[in-house]
Amino acid sequence: MGKAVKIRMEKTKMTRSKEHTSMNELDLHKWRYQTVVAGVRWKNPVGTASGTFQLDACGDYYDVSGLGAICTKGVSPVPWEGNPGPRTAESPAGMVNAVGLQNPGVDHYLVDELPRLKRLGAMVITNVAGHSDDDYAQVVGKLADSDADMLEINVSCPNVSHGGMSVGTDPVALGRLIARLRKLTDKPMIVKLTPNVTDIVAPARAAVESGADALSLINTLVGMRIDIVTGEPIIANTTGGVSGPAILPIALGFVWRVRQALPQVPIIGIGGIDSGEKALEYLYAGANAVEVGAAALSDPTAPMRVACELDELLETRPELARCLAEGRTWR
Ligand SMILES: Cc1cc2nc3c(=O)[nH]c(=O)nc-3n(C[C@H](O)[C@H](O)[C@H](O)COP(=O)(O)O)c2cc1C
Is the CB of 50 under 6 A from ligand 1? Predict the structure, then answer.
């Protein structure tokens, strides 16, 4: 970590100990390079990835209003218990998880996590989960008049409306779902694509043509680990989602392909980002912003550190910084 980054991290810690009311103002001065995603200005191009940020765990490490955006855990229409354990397994340069979208449901979210995040001055992306099209519609309907700044629709969840397959793997079904959700909200709607397809451009195009304002990619890749003592899968759910540095080249390739096919759509790049350099790769591939996921599970400060490192890297890349600030991308 460079000296300037260390100093900024120290400043962030100091800020954290002050009253919440003053945090926003203090942080506004710190970030030099903004980005614009679907018309929404982020104070820097780095956000948290869904399911890897918990306010109670991370809020003590850094000022959450300092990040470009905080993307929440998936929110479902009713509380979901998630999958039985074991839910996670280590893997080379990554991990496998089958948490199963455990969350207390949208009604609880609206009176608890969302107001707390907004009181802290965070730019909030609410991640929406559903096991059927009606589930998604119910959550998006309830969020329509909320304080959430943006919505991110997680179309990787197993969906009973589509025989248990995630709706993100079927461009026709995805288009139908997004068109239905579009009618329910004026909020900027990001569709988070699943990488578990042969052609990422087809669902990307279907989402955009049906009303998505932006795309985020990628969600986790299906994978598993086996315990060689028992000969059985380590994760109770058998398979889970692979994330972490191992998926970076795959995710980057997807971002590149979608950017080539859809030059205008705002893209948030996700997958294996644990440094400013890796975030920069995504921006050069054509992303408008990035989200940091699994890296935050071993180091809760990772998203803020990545943002600080990227801020330094953009100092010597004024052309890229200008593109982002104007809502354009490198490619
Ligand atoms: C423990 C865990 C929970 C996750 N939960 C969600 C979720 O609720 N909704 C979602 O869209 N993605 C979820 N994800 C996927 C991440 O947001 C991200 O897309 C993925 O992990 C790839 O990024 P990474 O390599 O930086 O972790 C989860 C990932 C992990 C590791």
Answer: yes
Report field, pTM of the whole predicted structure over 0.90: yes
Is 220 among the annotated ligand-binding positions?
yes
**Model confidence at 58, in pLDDT bands (50, 70, 90)?**
confident
Q: What is the 3-state secondary structure (H, E, C) of 237-256?
A: CCCEEEECHHHHHHHHHHHH
Shortest-distance Cα residue to atom 12 of ligand 1: 50
Phi, psi of 245 (to 5 degrees): -55, -30
Is residue 50 a known part of a binding site?
yes
CB 63, CB 82: distance < 8 Å? no
For the question of residue 308 being annotated catalytic, the response is no
Q: How many residues does the chain have?
A: 331
106 CB near ligand 1 (under 6 Å): no
Q: Does any ligand 1 atom lie closer than 6 A to the CB of residue 49? A: yes
What domains does the chain contain, in order, with CATH numbers?
3-325 (3.20.20.70)
Atom of ligand 1 nearest to the CA of 49: 17
Measure the CA–CA gap between 39 and 37, rounded to whole angstroms: 5
As given in the structure block, the two tokens for residue 102 are: 């455990």
Q: What is the pLDDT of residues 125-158, one digit of tens each?
A: 999 999 999 999 999 999 999 999 999 999 998 8
Between the CA of residue 134 and those of 50, 142, 201, 240, what are the distances in Å? 21, 12, 26, 25
